[in-house]
From TrEMBL:
Residues 106-374 form the RNA-binding protein AU-1/Ribonuclease E/G domain. GO terms for biological process: rRNA processing. Its cofactor is Mg(2+). This is RNAse G. Keywords: Hydrolase, Magnesium, Metal-binding, RNA-binding. One of its GO terms (molecular function) is RNA nuclease activity. The lineage of its organism: Bacteria, Bacillati, Bacillota, Clostridia, Peptostreptococcales.
Length: 473
C-alpha cells in the first residue's frame, strides 16, 4: 500500500512518500524559503555574455537568473540589454549560483502539461507500451486541434477519460491567457506553482495511493476539497491526526530520513554502498563488505551489484541527488552480467519522477548517469559545514597544529618585554601530542621563551590559545 505522510510543523512541512512502509521520497518546504521552480516572471535582461551563450535576467530576487542560449526562443544575437522576457524557473538557486530559467514555458496538470505556442505532442517516457502511446498521441491531437499550442500526455492520463483530460487542458489554457508581458513590470510574478501539498496530489498521488496522512485539520479539509474537485472517483483516504503527534516517528520515517544524512548505506547481503558528493558530481562506490558468498565469486558479485542497483535508485530519489552521477559497481567480467545489471538499474530508475539518463559503462567499468536537479539535496538542506574542519571532514594533524604554534612563537621573539607565555590546549589535542611522544619544550626553548602548557576543555578540539605575560616595569 502506498501512503503520503505530511508532518506540518511551525517552521516547515515535512512529507514522505511510502511504498509498502518503505520511504521512497522526502519533501520539505520551509515557510521562510519556498521553492520558485515552475514560477513564471516578467524579467529584464541585465547582461548578455555571448562568449558562453548565456544571458542574465533580473526577476526581482536576490540573484539574477541565467538562461543558456538553448533555453531561448529568440536567438541570443537578437536580444538586447533591457529587453523584457517571460521566463520560467527550471532550477532553484543553489550555493553561489542563481536560479536557472527558460523561455520555453509549460503549465503542469495532473494528466497533461500545457505547452503554450509550441505545436507538438509529447508522451511521458514512463509509458512504454506502444499501443498506449499511440492512443494517447491520438487523444493529444484531438485536444490541440485548432490551437497554436502543444501538449505532453502524462502517465496518469492512461487512467482517465478523454473528457476529464480535455477539461484539464481547457483549465490550463484559461490560466495561460492571463499570463502576458503587456503591462507587466520587472519582477512581476505572473504564474505561481502550487504549494508542496498540492503538487504532491497532482504529481505523486495516483490509483495506488490509498492514504494521505496529515496532522493539520485545516490542511486536511483543504486536501479533501482538492481531491473532490480534481477526481471525485479517487478512493484515497485523508487521515487527520492529532497536531501534537510526530508522524515521522509514528510511521518510522525518522530512522530512514536520518539514513539519508549518512554517506554509507548497508545492504541486507552484507555489502554496502558509499555515497560522496563533490561540487562537480556524486560518486557512489559499491563494496562487498562482509559478504564473501557461498557460491562462485562472480555470482556473489552479481548478487551484491543487483541489490546495490535497487538501493542506489531508491537513495537517489530519497536524497534527491541531481547532476552527474558515477557509480563504481564491483567489477564483473561477464558481459551478460553487466547487461543484466544495467537493465535492472534502468528499470528501477523508471520509478523516479525526475528525468534520469544512464550513459552506460565506461572502459574503466564505471556507470555514468545523470539525474535532473531542481533543488538542494536533502543532506544539504539539513547539514552545515563543520566550523572546525571547514566542511572537509578532516582535522589538521597534530604536527600541523604545532607548526602553527611554532609560527606564532617565532613572531613573538622580537617582543623583549614578554616574561612568560601560557599555551592553552584542548585535552584531545594534548592526548594526541602525548601519543606521538612530542616534547613541546623543544619549541619554546628554540625561541628562548618561558612557557607553561595548560589543558583547556573550553577550546575547540583543534588549535590552541596563546596568552602573554609581560615584564613588570
Amino acid at each position: 500500500m502506498n501512503q503520503i505522510v505530511a508532518d506540518i510543523g511551525a517552521l516547515e512541512t515535512r512529507i514522505a512518500v511510502l511504498e509498502n512502509e518503505v520511504v521512497k521520497e522526502l519533501h520539505f518546504e520551509r515557510k521562510s524559503s519556498t521553492s520558485i521552480v515552475n514560477n513564471i516572471y516578467c524579467g529584464t535582461i541585465i547582461n548578455i555574455v555571448k562568449g558562453i551563450g548565456t544571458i542574465f535576467v533580473d526577476i526581482g530576487v536576490e540573484k539574477n537568473v541565467f538562461l543558456h542560449e538553448t533555453e531561448l526562443k529568440t536567438p541570443i544575437a537578437r536580444l538586447n540589454k533591457g529587453d523584457k522576457l517571460l521566463v520560467q524557473i527550471k532550477k532553484d538557486a543553489l550555493s553561489e549560483k542563481g536560479a536557472k530559467a527558460t523561455t520555453f514555458l509549460s503549465l503542469p496538470g495532473k494528466y497533461v502539461i500545457f505547452l503554450p505556442e509550441e505545436k507538438q505532442i509529447g508522451i511521458s517516457s514512463r509509458i512504454t507500451n506502444q499501443k498506449d502511446r499511440e492512443n494517447l498521441e491520438a487523444m493529444g491531437k484531438e485536444i490541440i486541434e485548432g490551437t497554436s499550442h502543444g501538449v505532453v500526455m502524462r502517465t496518469e492520463a492512461l487512467h482517465q477519460s478523454s473528457s476529464r483530460i480535455r477539461q484539464e487542458y481547457q483549465n490550463l489554457t484559461t490560466i495561460w491567457t492571463s499570463i502576458t508581458l503587456e503591462n507587466a513590470s520587472k519582477g512581476d510574478l505572473l504564474f505561481q506553482e502550487e504549494a508542496l501539498l498540492d503538487r504532491l496530489i497532482r504529481d505523486v498521488m495516483n490509483k495506488d495511493t490509498k492514504e494521505f496522512v496529515i496532522n493539520d485539520s485545516l490542511e486536511a479539509k483543504r486536501l479533501r476539497d482538492i481531491c473532490q474537485k480534481r477526481n471525485p472517483d479517487d478512493c484515497i483516504k485523508i487521515i487527520e491526526c492529532d497536531p501534537d503527534e510526530n508522524l515521522f516517528e509514528r510511521y518510522h520515517i525518522e530512522s530512514q530520513w536520518k539514513q539519508a544524512m549518512q554517506n554509507k548505506v548497508s545492504l541486507e547481503s552484507g555489502g554496502s554502498i558509499v555515497i560522496n558528493t563533490t561540487e562537480a558530481l556524486t560518486v557512489i562506490d559499491v563494496n562487498t563488505g562482509k559478504n564473501i558468498g557461498s557460491n562462485r565469486f562472480e555470482d556473489t558479485v552479481l548478487q551484491i551489484n543487483l541489490e546495490a542497483a535497487v538501493e542506489i535508485a531508491r537513495q537517489l530519489r530519497l536524497r534527491d541527488v541531481g547532476g552527474i552521477i558515477v557509480i563504481d559497481f564491483i567489477d564483473m567480467k561477464k558481459k551478460h552480467y553487466q547487461h543484466k545489471l544495467l537493465s535492472l538499474l534502468k528499470n528501477e530508475l523508471k520509478k523516479d519522477r525526475q528525468k534520469t539518463v544512464v550513459a552506460g559503462i565506461t572502459k574503466l567499468g564505471l556507470v555514468e548517469m545523470t539525474r535532473r536537479k531542481t533543488r538542494e539535496k536533502v543532506d544539504q538542506m539539513f547539514m552545515e559545514a563543520c566550523d572546525a574542519c571547514s566542511g572537509t571532514g578532516f582535522y589538521p594533524s597534530v604536527y600541523q597544529d604545532l607548526y602553527i604554534l611554532e609560527k606564532k612563537l617565532r613572531l613573538l621573539v622580537k617582543h623583549k618585554d614578554i616574561e612568560q607565555i601560557k599555551v592553552c590546549i584542548h585535552p584531545q589535542t594534548w592526548q594526541k601530542i602525548q601519543k606521538e611522544g612530542l616534547d613541546l619544550k623543544v619549541i619554546t626553548d628554540k625561541y628562548n621563551h618561558k612557557a607553561m602548557f595548560i589543558q583547556d576543555s573550553l577550546l575547540t578540539t583543534r588549535g590552541f590559545k596563546v596568552e602573554l605575560y609581560k615584564k613588570e616595569r
